[in-house]
Amino acid sequence: MSEGSARQQELLEAAYAWVLDHGWAGMSLRPLAEAIGSSPRVLLFLFGSKDGLVRALLARSRADQLAVVDAVGEGGDLAAVGARVWAWLAAPPHRALVRLWLEGYTHSVADDGAGPWAGFAARTVADWDALLADHQSAARRDTAAGAAERALLLAVLRGALLDLLATGDTARLDAAVAAHLDGLRPRE
Fold first, then answer.
1. What's the fold here for domain 1-48?
2. pLDDT at 188
3. Residues with Cβ < 8 Å from 126, sequence gap 6 or more?
4. How far apart (Å, rounded) are the C-alpha atoms in residues 45 and 48?
């Protein structure tokens, strides 16, 4: 790794830690640069623009998200993986990352398709859908019913997450997710 890329990676990690703590809202180069021991000019040089920095931070955030996908994707049926995803999402140590994801997702949905947020939400949905599809039978996976089953599970998890972030009512939402997952369990 060259000195420039090592410094770029170092600043990206520092900026990512800052964004995890402070969120995307109101992110300005000057306070960010000051907080991470850099300058706006250095950030602009290394990332090309503020949009370039945001894209790099979104990619860094997505890398964490994909690591979660890998971690929860080990074996089991759709209900089992859904339970592991929910347990991870609902765990208090992960609140900063899920809040950052939610902010990025919201920006992406509101974006007109041209900014640094473009496509972030759609890629997120595709990543999670692929994980869930891996836990359906081959016969079900490629059917309209299988796609609908995955979409509903993802909607339930995302909705429960939004409510959890808004209310902190873990018991109610754990019960709601468990009720939905129970309907996905194979019946004998």
1. Arc Repressor Mutant, subunit A (1.10.10)
2. 57
3. none
4. 5
108/89 Cα distance (integer angstroms): 20
| pTM: predicted TM-score of the whole model, two decimal places | 0.83
Say how far apart CA 138 and CA 140 lie, in whole Å.
6
Alpha helices in 27-143 (DSSP H): 29-35, 40-47, 50-72, 78-90, 95-110, 120-133, 138-141
- Measured between alpha carbons, how far is residue 120 from residues 84, 91, 110 in Å? 23, 23, 11
**Domain boundaries in the chain?**
1-48, 58-184
**Which residues of the chain are modeled with pLDDT < 70?**
1-4, 113, 187-188
Contacts of 13 (CB under 8 A, 6+ apart): 60
Tens of pLDDT, residues 107-134? 899 877 678 888 989 999 999 999 999 9
Would you say the C-alpha torsion 44, 47, 53, 55 has a positive or negative sign? positive
Which residues, including other chains, have CB under 8 Å from residue 76's CB and lie 6 or more apart? 84, 135
Nearest to 62 by CA among 21, 28, 12, 27: 12
